[in-house]
Amino acid sequence: MSEHQFAARLEALLSEARAAGALAGLRAQLEAALREAAERPAQATARGGEVPMRYGMVAGSQAMQGVFDLLERVIASDVAVLIQGETGTGKELVAKALHELGPRKGKPFLAENCAAVPADLLESELFGHKRGSFTGAIADRPGHFVAADGGTVFLDEIGDMPLAMQSKLLRVLQEGEVRPVGSNKVVHVNVRIVAASNKDLRAMCRNGTFREDLYFRLAVVTIQLPPLRERKGDVRHLVRFFLERMKGELGREASVTDEALTLLERWRWPGNVRELENEIRRAVALSNGTIGPADLSPPIRTA
């Protein structure tokens, strides 16, 4: 469906609703139309051609079509989802798509990287605390689960969550309640949990570093994101997309030579999409407007 056809469909729905006075029905139909537009493969025009984009992710490879097909089936539900994949593969983009196109859209979306917060502060970040409960607690703080009530909490790198916190998170999933640090009262919450990890959580369950009961609560549906090296053809799509983004971000317009693009496609990208984005940002900043092999990082141009 083209943009013009989509706009015409929305206008037709509005006209029908005005005539019938069916405002409730209009809302449902509009939401269905918006979801259809978000789920269909979109074409974002960028320098050098069209960039295939779906669910906010640039991808045209067969490896990513499996991800999109699974998203299409699960996005309208409210089940817990575990996103697995290497660092830089776009796990938070998937989490945001689940929230923004799912039943909790319009409600809060709060993300926390469990590996970036010290273990003694993670409980306060997630569950909140009462004033005076520890040094520095100068006021009551609700925590992510209370602040995101009705919405989604995204727990990135959950494999780094301490075991003691895992048991407390399990209680939230089972009972729908949290107890702030320093309080003897529980607060009932209604949140959707989306978790992500670059670790093998099943292996961690076997060696006792991750709770098996928590794993099964989180992994009602598991989405495995492929690394960029397995996404054949997506590097050139991503390069065009990032060149267009850098034009707005850095105020510089640039193109890439065929020789440089070949080198970029040969690199295995251990840092995945995030590494490629940083490489293009660097190349745009250093080039004279045309990115050639000499403008790429030494490991890429000499590989």
Instruction: Give the topology string: H per helix, E per strand.
Output: HHEEEHEHEHHEHEEEHHEHEHHEH
- CATH fold call of the largest domain: Rossmann fold
Helix content: 40-55%
3D shape: globular
Structure explained in plain terms:
The chain is of the alpha/beta class and 303 residues long. The chain folds into 3 domains: 38 residues, no CATH class; 163 residues, 3-Layer(aba) Sandwich (Rossmann fold), CATH 3.40.50.300; 74 residues, Helicase, Ruva Protein, domain 3. Helix content is 47%, strand content 15%. The chain is built from 13 helices and 12 strands. Strands 5-6-9-4-10 form a 5-stranded parallel sheet. A 3-stranded antiparallel sheet has the order 1-2-3. Strand 7 and strand 8 form a beta hairpin. It starts with a helix and ends with a helix.
Write the topology of this structure:
Blueprint lengths: L2 H18 L2 H17 L2 E5 L2 E6 L2 E2 L3 H13 L6 E4 L6 H10 L8 E5 L5 H9 L16 H4 L4 E5 L6 H13 L1 E2 L8 E2 L3 E6 L3 H6 L5 H7 L2 E4 L9 H16 L5 E2 L1 H9 L5 H15 L3 E2 L6 H4 L2
Parallel strand pairs: 4-9, 4-10, 5-6, 6-9, 11-12
Antiparallel strand pairs: 1-2, 2-3, 7-8
Helix pairs in contact: 1-2, 10-12
Write out key terms for the chains shown.
five-stranded parallel β-sheet; Helicase, Ruva Protein, domain 3; alpha/beta; Rossmann fold; 12 strands
